[in-house]
Design brief:
Elements: H1 4-23, E1 39-45, H2 50-64, E2 68-73, H3 79-88, E3 93-96, H4 111-120, E4 125-129, E5 133-135, H5 140-148, E6 152-155, E7 163-164, H6 165-170, H7 184-191, E8 204-205, E9 208-215, H8 222-236, H9 238-241, H10 246-256, E10 262-263, E11 269-272, H11 280-283, E12 289-292, H12 302-314
Parallel strand pairs: 1-2, 1-4, 2-3, 6-10, 11-12
Antiparallel strand pairs: 4-9, 5-12, 6-9, 7-8
Helix pairs in contact: 1-12, 2-12, 8-10
């Protein structure tokens, strides 16, 4: 008899194949509406996530009713992928990842994505959306944030709040932020209260999720992210800061230090952690937006059900 871990591994791959087959139905849905209304729907993608990405961005565009698409190619998009994207997303601008200068910040780990967003926000409202998300309901809070030129972010957990950096660091007293065994987010939070960034007093931070975040035009740009990254290099060490997750920490920091940022209500904008907590029946009435985090994506049938619902609504 297979061990539970092996059984779970096999189940994950079976559901991944089922999802890929289901997501192909998105290719039979109409292209998104055209127009440049000052909102950019931005994602970094590659050929492996083309189909779920189309579900993510088309369901977002349908429910938001705004936005043109800009894509950062992770280096794997094919000519056939470009043709599909051109048809379904009205010839979006596609940026090559090798063309993104990360300056003093780490390379990889989606840093190219964040820095491109912070460049684009100079004259547009930029919404970052991951390919493992599905929009299922009206996004009134997001439209209100766009109209008010407020940044927003998906909460990392239900109790996430914007906090003063010094207050956050006080919770980590006794934690050595330079320990490589720490997750980069824990290391950064242990050090953040002692960071000195010229021109930026009263620093704030929130445990958000960069899978869905909004950046209002004219808000903090690349310069703040670069200063924060350089300060973290000194505080926790380049080896620790260069690990996966430092981009999300920086996204959270930039949003928290914007003008009147909005934390999306967790009862309508979720991270999917556990099928027992987020049952299939709840998606029909409660969720506006769901981020299906990798490790938990195929727990139960929630991701399959949400994808099917979104595609059916696209027509």
């Amino acid at each position: 008899m297979a061990s539970p871990s092996l059984a779970e591994h096999l189940n994950w791959h079976v559901k991944q194949r089922l999802h890929r087959r289901l997501a192909r139905r998105v290719l039979r849905t109409p292209p998104i509406a055209q127009g440049d209304d000052g909102v950019i729907l931005f994602s970094m993608i590659g050929t492996a996530v083309l189909l779920p990405y189309l579900v993510a961005v088309k369901s977002l565009r349908q429910q938001l009713g705004r936005g043109r698409v800009v894509i950062l190619d992770d280096g794997t998009l094919t000519a056939a992928d470009h043709a599909v994207l051109a048809h379904h997303l009205n010839a979006p601008r596609i940026i090559a990842i090798d063309d993104v200068d990360t300056g003093p910040c780490p390379r990889g780990g989606t840093w190219e994505r964040l820095l491109t967003i912070l460049d684009l926000r100079a004259d547009a409202y930029v919404i970052q959306v991951d390919s493992d998300t599905v929009t299922l309901g009206d996004l009134a809070e997001v439209r209100a944030a766009i109209d008010a030129e407020r940044d927003f972010t998906l909460r990392g957990e239900a109790g996430s709040e914007i906090r003063a950096a010094a207050e956050l660091a006080a919770d980590r007293i006794g934690v050595d932020p330079r320990l490589l065994g720490l997750h980069v987010q824990d290391a950064a939070e242990a050090a953040i209260g002692w960071l000195a960034i010229p021109g930026h007093d009263r620093l704030r931070y929130v445990r958000g999720c960069s899978g869905f975040a909004g950046f209002a035009p004219g808000g903090p740009g690349r310069a703040l992210a670069e200063k924060f990254s350089q300060a973290m290099d000194g505080a926790i060490g380049r080896a620790s800061w260069s690990r996966w997750g430092s981009e999300q920490v920086t996204s959270n920091f930039v949003v928290a230090n914007g003008r009147d940022p909005l934390l999306l209500p967790y009862d309508r904008y979720w991270n999917f952690w556990n099928a027992a907590l987020f049952g299939r029946a709840r998606f029909a009435g409660d969720a506006a937006f769901v981020h299906f985090i990798g490790t938990y994506r195929f727990h139960g049938d929630a991701y399959l059900a949400a994808t099917r619902t979104a595609i059916d609504r696209l027509g």
